[in-house]
Specification:
By secondary structure, the protein is mainly beta. It is 11% helix and 44% strand. It has a single domain, classed as Gyrase A, domain 2.
């Protein structure tokens, strides 16, 4: 699982195995260690209706995904889901959850568990 954070935008990218685990078990989590502390990020299935939401607490960003969005996600052609979560006043948090595609250009990253890229270039 990869996470990208830029200003009020959070994007999670999941490998094939992670998509399957999220859909079957309802939870995936990664940890980045900083020595005496760590940063965690997770995706969790919740409820049956609504949109993507996110929480932050105890050093963990958790993206919450309505169960209805995950039905047949490993097998279908849906790339991902997005939402604008109201924060305060006029502020929103942009959320994106998507399947991770293989890059076509040169990369040292192991992409064996990524989805085939529908485009010919990254």
């Amino acid at each position: 699982m990869k996470i990208r954070i830029q200003r009020n935008s959070v994007r999670f990218r999941l490998s094939k195995t992670e998509v399957e685990k999220l859909c079957s078990e309802g939870y995936i989590e990664e940890t980045t260690s900083f020595g005496d502390t760590s940063f965690k990020y997770a995706v969790k299935r919740y409820g049956t209706t609504g949109e993507l939401m996110a929480t932050f607490g105890n050093g963990c960003i958790t993206m919450l995904v309505p169960e209805k969005l995950l039905i047949n996600w490993p097998e279908n052609s849906v790339i991902g889901f997005d939402a604008k979560m109201p924060i305060t006043g006029n502020e929103t948090l942009s959320l994106l959850l998507e399947k991770d595609f293989k890059c076509i250009d040169n990369t040292a990253e192991d992409q064996s568990d990524h989805y085939d890229n529908p485009k010919q270039i990254c």
